[in-house]
Task: structure prediction
Amino acid sequence: MTLNFTLIADTKCRLGEGPVYDERTDRLYFVDILNCKVLAMELASGELRSWSFESEVGSLGLTVSGKLVVALRHSVILFDLANGVRRELCQIEAELAETTRLNDGKVGPDGAFWVGTMDDRPTKEGIGALYRVDPSGKVERKVEGVQISNGLAWTADGDFMFYADSRGPWIDRWKFDRNTGAMSDRTRFAAPDAEGRPDGGSCDAEGFYWSAGVSAGTLNRFAPDGRLVESHPVPVVAPTMPCFGGADFRTIYLTSLREGRAADALAKAPWTGSLIAAQSPVAGFPAWRFIDV
Result:
């Protein structure tokens, strides 16, 4: 399997992250964390839109109503694209304003928004955690002792959840109850390092887990038993998250990181920070939606 990436949007984000495909609108959402922006690419026309926020935008998810659920530095909000109205659902680790921020987040099969925190200081410690935010705004802490929360993904049947610590580095897997959001039977799924520390992740329809190897410029595909079965070099310095989209969910979209990368490396990989895509021989599946109605 060879992935041939092309440039989709020349955004040159400082820290591009969190791509999510909306099959209702044929739109690809993603964020530029450090520029405090949500971006949307109209795939049919190529039109690019953006919305600015008052703090870093760690991640986002789709909702049943058509709004977005958005993780800011220390709060989770509902954002109405039609009129710009923002409603806060909750605050998370606001007491750690100088040390942590929200990072990777996704809507789970249970209709809740799952989002993790990271140590935002140069020297990382295991002070981050993973949280579940239900439609009422109730917050539950689910995993502790994390340096940089990343890699959230679920299998298509909703029976298994993946979560990673980029500085661990590890990827763990849990059995997941899609009715309650309960997690059980935590297993060390993989501990990738040389092939790229694990950043964002996504599952395909066959139950394989795709992980952006941020430190090695790779996109790695792991079998359901944790074996690394494919490692694809990508034309960006630091890939951050893949997602599946398009009409048949056979396009892989990929974001990446420019901030702090060496000038000579960026000269060799000018698409770094921009949205790129490749055709995939395996399909993904639609993203779950936050139950806000």
The longest strand covers residues 100-107. The chain has a mean pLDDT of 97. The chain is about 0% helix and 50% strand. The CA atoms of residues 66 and 283 lie 24 Å apart.
